[in-house]
Amino acid sequence: VIIKSARFNHDFYDGVITGDGVVSYRKSLSEIQQVYQQVPQTLSPDTLMYTVYSFDAQGDNTLLWGLTVMEPVLVAGECNMTRGHYHADQAQPEIYFGLAGEGLLLMMNHTGECWAEQVTKGSVHYIEGNYAHRLINTGDMQFKVGACWPKAAGHDYKAIDLQPFPVRVFKSANGIDFAEQGDNNEV
Ligand SMILES: [Fe+2]
Which residues surround ligand 1, an ion (CB under 5 A)? Predict the structure, then answer.
């Protein structure tokens, strides 16, 4: 038998995904500021918010493997969050898993119901194909979350712009606070 090395590596708890076919991008505050209630002038637009790594096997019917590393940044007291998305193909689910730090996986269905799961090292989260999903760093260190999803899922960011998550998560010396818009929402 021919023994080959792995196509890519994921240093789960201390590192990132490396190898051929791994791509990454960094999101700075200026690229995501629209999701926050308020952006203070004291915070540089170049502030690194999160970095996303993914391994793409380059094919039609493939699985993608990803890692999101979120910095412990507060934006006028609001916790660092990803833009969030629905899948373009809502038949395609996704799995997230916590690797370091602590935070929330905020989910929402098409009727605007919103809820969250606590994400910590070792937690695994099954995201139904038709749920919007967003990560939020509520801790004091980097929040690292792994993901595995079918490439066919795609991303739909527009639906989130049209119907934003109805919950904002703030952090202060007193702890975590949720600001909810409208009724009928639970966190
Ligand atoms: Fe997704």
Answer: 94
